[in-house]
Each structure stands twice: as C-alpha cells, then as structure tokens.
Amino acid sequence: MANNSNLGAAKAAKNDEFYTQYADIQKEVNAYLEYNPDTFRDKTVLLPCDDPEWSNFTRFFAQNFEKLGLKRLISTSYAVESKKYKDYEPTLFETESPWFDADKTRIKGKIFELTRDINQNGRIDIDDLEWHYLEGDGDFRSLEVCKLRDESDIIVTNPPFSLFREFLAWIMEGGKAFLIIGNMNAITYKEVFPLIKENRIWSGVGFNLSMVYKAAYSNYLEANQKFVRSKGYNPDDNYIKVPGVCWYTNLDHGRRHEPLRLMTMKDNLRFSKHREIREMGYIRYANYDAIDVPFIDSIPSDYDGIMGVPKTFPGSYCPEQFEIVGCAEGDSGKELGLKPFPRELKALNKSLRDGQLYYMLDGKPEKPYARILIRKKQQQ
Question: How far is CA 244 from CA 134, 181, 186, in A?
C-alpha cells in the first residue's frame, strides 16, 4: 500500500484545514434560495475561519453578491503562525497591495470586506474586495471577530472539525443564523444533539456526503485517488475524499418539510427490500420500551410507539411527521432511562455499555449501532 503518512500526521496534529469546493457551496446555497429567494437579501454574511485568498466561500459569495442581494460580506482568516501547517505563499492579490507587510502576514489575521463597487464597472463582485490586517490573529473567539459576529446576520463557513463544538456554541451565543459544515458524528455530541431535538438547528440539504476537499497534505490511498478522480479532480494537487460530511443550519429549506414516504408495518414485513426486516421483523429492546428499526426506509408509518433509528435520521427528519425523543448513547441514554444491562451478559458481549440499547437474539445480547429514538407525531 502506498505511504499515507501525511494524512496520519495531519490527523494527529488535528489539522483539518480543508477547502470546500465551489460547486458544493453553490449546490447547498441554491437549495435555500429555491425555498426562499430572499434568504440572503439585505443581509450581512460573515465567513470566519476562512482563507479569503484561497477560499471558495469568499469567491462564491463575492461573485454572487448582487444575485443574493447582500448588504455586506465579511471574510476573516487566521494568521499563518496560528495554523498547524505553516507552509504559506502569499498571493499576488496580497503582495501587490499597498497594505502588504511580510511580517504582519505571519502573525496577523486578515479581514476582507465587500460592500460597494470600488472599480466603478457597474457591478459589485470579487474585484471590489477590500482588505486589511486584523489587530489579532483572526481566532473566531477573539473580541474583534466576536464583534464582527454581532454585526452579522448569517454565518457561513467550514470550521475546523476539531473545533466544531466550540464554534457552534459561539454561533448560538450570538443568536445568529448560520450554515456550516461538520462531521456527521457531531449529531450525537452532547453539545449538539439537544439543539437538534429542540428543533433549534437541523441538517442542511447536503447530509452524510463524501466530499472532495483541497487539503494541506496528500492522501495516496488508492480508494481516495479513485474517488477524487471520479469527481473530476487531480489527487496529486492535494484533493482528498472526506466521508461523513454534513451541512448544519437553522435556515429553512424545502427538503426539511418533505415527509418520508413509508409503508405500514404489515407491508414492511412482507415487502421490505431488507431481508432482515422480512425475516426477523422489528425486535424490541431489552432495556427500553421501543423497537429497533435498522433502516430509515423501514420505519413503519402506522407505529405509534418509540423507535430506535440510525443516527443518520436527522438527514431525513421532517418535524411535522416525527418528534425526536432522545439519543441512546452514554449519559444521554442514561438520562432517557435506559436500564443497565445485567452484569452476567458482559461475558456474552463485551461491547455492552450502560446508556446504550441492546436486545436479545438467540439467547445472546446484541447491541445495535448508535440509535436516535423517535416517535410519530400525533395529529392535533
């Protein structure tokens, strides 16, 4: 197998400085515009945790400034010395500017703003960006970036996955609308799941995707190279595949209100495409009053009790159709009232953990993968 040490080293250093592709941003934003053409109109959009010279977020929103009807676009970046990977070559855009300072570039963050037609060519676009150095290194937690947050209406970015919890808390503290990218595993974070359950945030249109990113390192694994090439990118240019990627937001979109088309329990038992459902039916948990539904498309439309479904469910969640009861993982599961497993069962399945669901199958305890508990919304 080809050497993949760069990828491992980057993960060990918590380097997740990935650059989102323009087409992925465009596809996601268009879904909100289809639902509400005025989503961004007269709004100030902030793009923190960005690299404006390289970022497709800045490029997309600058190029579509007038189409979106923006009032103001702000993009900020970290200083070079604040990053894990410090190999950096300033762009001509920066070096040819009268503001350029080689020393400041290493230790100061930068802010790019777009509000007006500077070059007087009759349109406001990326050529009208103005920039200067920040007082600090551009960390989103700094007072000056917090001030920008408070001045904005919508925050859009791809924050470092390792800082996702803290970044989301920073957004919620400011009470802002947002559209950000994170890992699918964030759904079950104790800082995130309650917000999903309370319907304060939800999944975007793009959910559980394998996306191509521009990275600070190469991934020479054959599967990565094949996937990247299938999307039209050259892996030799440090394009990599990142699986399990989701958009998270509190902006409304049409897919969120599309109910799942489901069969009754009787029809699932007869016609489900999943052999497990046809042969084994719906197994009841041993430590909680609910049934296990291992596939989202096998959720029975006529079952009124609680169901444990895959943690990918938020990507299909319609709040008018279902309510989320809780997350059956660790402390969250214990708070829901999941009964502890009898200790003698540990010898039969060493993976058993209190706070997680299990059921008995052929006399042995089996633990399903992470489950979210849901219930059909009762008609008013």
Answer: 34, 11, 10
What is the three-class DSSP state of 159? coil
Beta strand pairing status for 44-50 and 72-77?
Answer: parallel
Q: How confident is the model at residue 230 (pLDDT cuts 50, 70, 90)?
A: confident
Residue 374 parent element (H or E): strand 371-376
Give residue limits of the domains in the chain: 5-256, 258-376
Helix 143-151, helix 164-174: angle, nearest 10: 50
For residue 379, give the DSSP letter. Answer: P
Neighbours of 191 (CB within 10 A): 13
Instruction: Read off the DSSP letter of residue 257.
Output: G
**pLDDT score recorded for residue 50:** 76
Has residue 12 got a pLDDT over 60?
no
Q: Which residues pair with 115 in a beta bridge?
A: none
Q: Which long-range contacts (CB under 8 A, 24 or more apart) does 342-345 make?
A: none
Q: What is the mean pLDDT of the chain?
A: 88
pTM of the model: 0.87
DSSP secondary structure letter of residue 220 = -
Q: Which range has the worst mean pLDDT, 2-11, 45-54, 149-158, 362-371?
A: 2-11
Find out whether 282 and 305 touch, Cβ atoms under 8 Å.
Answer: no
Structure tokens at 361: 């199958």
